[in-house]
User: Which sequence fits this backbone?
């Protein structure tokens, strides 16, 4: 593990994602403008940040979840386009691998894992503007490495301030 210097390498980026790997380790991915490939580990006991293997794609405004001891990052924005790509971080190997892509492009999406078997991706934006809202839900079957768009759609309400 390489400790980061106090320069730009230790800056926190807007629109990054974070997930606890244990009570003492938090993985922070991507973020920034332009988006970064960074993956960093915050060690809570040492109050120290170390660099981990970079993701395959630059991304910000992406979702992150744990499944079967590995971290999955979903979608986001590459700086040029919305993403439907998914990467899996093999924590014990410090290695990223591409997984089956979601059916829809999404950034500013949400995700969660159920029973260590399924990953759900919710909403986000898919187009060139934030008015192009993705109202679909997709589910990823980990064992089969496939995504399915569910027939239920999220209700998108408009509100005024």
Assistant:
């Amino acid at each position: 593990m390489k400790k980061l210097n106090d320069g730009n390498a230790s800056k926190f980026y807007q629109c990054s994602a974070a997930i606890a790997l244990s009570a003492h380790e938090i993985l922070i991915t991507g973020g920034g403008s332009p988006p970064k490939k960074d993956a960093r580990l915050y060690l809570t006991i040492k109050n120290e940040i170390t660099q981990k293997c970079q993701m395959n794609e630059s991304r910000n405004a992406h979702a992150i979840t744990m499944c079967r001891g590995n971290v999955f990052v979903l979608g986001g924005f590459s700086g040029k386009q919305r993403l439907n790509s998914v990467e899996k971080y093999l924590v014990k190997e410090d290695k990223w691998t591409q997984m089956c892509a979601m059916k829809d492009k999404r950034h500013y999406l949400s995700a969660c894992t159920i029973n260590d078997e399924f990953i759900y991706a919710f909403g986000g934006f898919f187009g060139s503007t934030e008015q192009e809202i993705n109202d679909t839900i997709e589910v990823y079957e980990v064992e089969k490495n496939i995504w399915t768009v569910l027939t239920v759609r999220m209700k998108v309400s408009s509100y005024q301030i």
